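Regression test attached.
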Amino acid sequence: MKHTSKQSLFQAALVRSALRESLIKLNPVQMWKNPVMFTVEIGTAVMLVVMVLSSISGGNSPLLGRPGYNFTIFLLLLLTLLFANFAEAFAEARGKAQADSLRKTRKDTPAKKLLDDGSVVTTSSSALQRGDRFVCEAGDLIPSDGEIVEGLASVDESAITGESAPVIREAGGDRSSVTGGTKVLSDRIVVEITAQPGESFLDKMIALVEGAKRQKTPNEIALTILLAGFTLVFVIVCVTLKPFADYANTPISIAAYVSLFVCLIPTTIGGLLSAIGIAGMDRALRANVITKSGKAVETAGDVDVLLLDKTGTITIGNRKATNFYPTEGVSRPDLIRFSVLSSMADETPEGKSIVELANPELVKGLSIHGAALIKFTAETRTSGVDMPDGTRIRKGAQDTIRKLVERGGNDFPADTEKEIRHISANGGTPLAVAVNERVVGVIELQDIIKPGIQERFQRLRRMGVKTVMVTGDNPLTAKYIAEKAGVDDFIAEAKPEDKLQYIREEQQGGKLVAMMGDGTNDAPALAQADVGVAMNSGTSAAKEAGNMVDLDNDPTKLIEVVEIGKQLLMTRGTLTTFSIANDVAKYFAIVPALFITSIPALQALNIMGLHSPESAILSAVIFNALIIPALIPLALKGVAYKPIGASALLRRNLLVYGLGGILVPFVGIKLIDLLVGVFV
Amino acid sequence: MNSELTGVLAIFLISLLLAIPLGRYVARVYLGEHTLLDPVMGPVERLFFRLSRIDGRREMSWQEHLKAMLGINFVWLLFTMFILMNMAWLPLNPDGNPSMAPDLAFNTAISFVVNCNLQHYSGESGLSYLGQLWLMFLHFVSAATGMAAAAMVFNALRLRQTAGLGNFWDYFIKSTTRILLPVSVLIAIVFVFRGMPMTFEGKDTLVTLRGDTVQVSRGPVASFAAIKHLGTNGGGFYGANSAHPLENPDYITNAVELIAQFLIPLAMVFGLGYYLRRRKLAMMIFGVMTVGFLLLVIPNMVFEIQGNPAIGAMDVDQSLGAMEGKEIRNSAASSAYWSILTTVISTGSVNAMHDSTMPLSGMNELLAMMVNAFFGGCGVGILNFYIFVIIAVFIAGLMVGRTPEFMGKKVEAREVKIAMFTALLSPLLIMGGTALAAWTFVHDPALPWLNNPGFHGFSEMLYEFTSANANNGSGFEGLGDNNPFWNISTGIVLLLGRFIPIIGPMAIAGLLAGKKYIPEGAGTLKTDTLTFGIMIFSVIVIITALSYFPALVLGPLAEYFSM
């Protein structure tokens, strides 16, 4: 669903539903969850009462003030509340829309249910229960999530991943999961349903976004406490201001008290806090990662160690042929021709890569028609062809080819032996080629490191994340690839238990570990890891054990997830700073305005030169209201994360959101005052 | 530079130079390492532990530390009440001074137990020598209480996961025997040689040049004045405190008193660095505190040296500075320096009338006490600073996209809750108290409280509660505060303002110490950097400004702009 992320932020339909929702969210029972905005709601209610009382009393009481002014303040406070609600509702609507587009793939489809006696009945996908089995054949839409228990099929998963190339899903392996809404292209599979309808990961995710089951994350709770603390400080400030003003013989209207209070409490971050959290999960979803909880996203930002599988993450699939080294006396084109001949029937990725590497000019017209194919076996450990003219071509590991040529009475040439040592030292795998028991040369196979992966690891290192490569290779090769790719550590000849052991050791040292996995034997490690991302193609055990599921089955996704987590925390932190820094200017707008009439000397504090006390207060309240919608895009998109080191990042954010937070409202309030001053 | 400023600068630099080795020594004492005084004080300490049947080596949890700390303070409170109310018949009363009335005894007892030393009596006539000696004892133990609490927090900051945080009694006794007692003895010896009385012989009689016979109160003044400053207590032997010629006879004693009150707050900061072997962290804290201190003290010195323009307008010479309420022997510059030093640190001793300082000087004195963490009191200053560190770490951590950590421990909801509650307490007590006073005064303007109604009167009330909350003890003494309203309200503020800011940091440190230790990684936000120092400084400034701006506008700022 990558295309949705390119659409504009504010889509009309989403805005409409969010507007409706923001009115519903005025319900105090819901508001209560957000202490900052709840106090604004109380203030709004107070202003409503004051407005009514002041119209009855005719606007003569200095405490009640003028009805028209009270009405304006009431309206502005209501607007502040609605803006905050809109932010939350809009974030929810976006998340929901994202989830819905995934859910669309699982509308009611016919399902071929397999009964115990082996017969098949057609039923609706919604009627399927956990434990039921159904059959899918070529051309069928898979009606529900499940695990293949029988057969193998190629499946088009583009509805979920956007990737058009079909994938193979088969029973018994690590790629046994199928997703509802995807299409079987060939063959026949029997699938067992593993989750109750409505309890799949996607359903859980949608519930999370919709708010019914959304729980505050630990950091969100701590921040709410901090904000509640600041709110209490300003309760004290505003309540004590009444006797202070009495002492100074200054009458202050209730509208001014309420305005001062609402402007001071951190409404900006208070109003955007839940939107930021939802947007974090939404960004994960946009990256095609389903999170089981908001906490998982937050934890991802804290990850210290990333465990990455070599194959598919750091290197492209399997080894590839990268060079031919002919033995002295053999021409290079000859070696290439022999190599290609020996590989033409070889269906392994290595074999195919040899054919790909060869110059098409050289291999044109080569044919193995009528030749006898010698398949790779564990005993011979070589493969090749016997040509119709009797030529015996073999390729294989160095030691087996050596035995082969020595048995044929020939020597293993010294220059090729040197070449082989050289290849091994560079992390490659040498493949010797012999013709009629005589060595003609060696093919170099290399792991191909994904382009751009080094930069990603460098970025991770600057973020403070340690990368660990997990591979089945021997330590020497593993070390070479680790160095070349730029990972910090590696686990060679890794068994699934080794991953678990490594994670435990890192966690013992207080580190947070993230890993990605797909197989059932990855499940314990996925469960042990602080952030476990299971591939959607993986077994249901793996998906059950992890706390995120990646629909794209993309092993580099972890890196994105870490950044999304960091962005989430940063957005909260910077907007908190911004919100609190704003108060300085608001004080300079409102406090002089409160006392200027009775203490004219305080005009010196009116450093913004605001028009009148009333316009000053109105401008501050308007600024306070408008800043919320102005920051919604930032809250939803998140503050950009730059891996420049924690101190530099703090410096940058302090400058932008701290100093900026102090300066922006001075300008904003002044500009609003110029406008408001015309009317008041 | 004139000699006044040179003098102040020299006093400041000598304080720093002495505090660095003292800090190293403090760290050695709390680490239980071998020190020079072992052969002298070791047996004394062991005797105390044997008599009280306390095992000074048993590791205590933070809750046990709290219980011990609060328990012993409560016992002192009762003892103090008993002695103050029975001084008349108890020994050591050559002048025949009377016992205290219960309400005054209550106020005085709280005031001295909490290291504040608001004094609603004059020592000359209000206390016997036994009373003075007991208060001197409290000078020691209240300072040691704060230091022992800080020592526990130091212990908790060490990079490991633990429930045992040292032994309160061990920290407490050693603070007294190894640090406070030896240093005060040295200071007292200087004072004796500069002419402070040190006797139990009662009043002396003096015949003046005019032939009048005058009674002069004497007593163990030199030792009292030494620990009064070293322990950042501030409660004077005489009613006039360090403005009294026998409690601060000349420029040398004035300088020594200034250095003495600065010593331990400085040494605690350096000591933290030595204790944790994190010199950069200590330097960061020292930097933040010093910048705060200088930003308060420099304007004060400028205002006081410039003199009062309103008086200048009356053709009165102001070349010596604003000398109203100041002693000539102390000079405007050094009095201005004292006025901020005694308020940033919770000493509260005075050598000039704070009530008479310029409006913005008064504001800086108020701000110094409102922050109460730019060095701050003996042990407790660094605890107050710790609260700001926790809040700064939390916000800064989020700003760099990581769950906040301090010294390898995750700062989570519980710690934030305690830190916020502790930080909230000051505005609540100061603003709430002042509001209550303002309200009472507005409803009964006949109350004999304020010499100056208007803005300055407001400042006087604000100052009294600020001073009580900060456990400072100085006052804008134009306020008529010896009556039930002020005795009771400030008494409550004193107790809350003392113990909650000690309990809060101890609880946070204890909770953090119990958490898993996370070694510093490349993504960890370093807290010993200039950037983080700026962050803490901003947090302190913003929280203080936001909490007190309206009150300061109505008090000193309105006064300044109306001048």
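Expected vs. actual: identical. Chain A touches chain B through 74 residues (CB under 8 Å).
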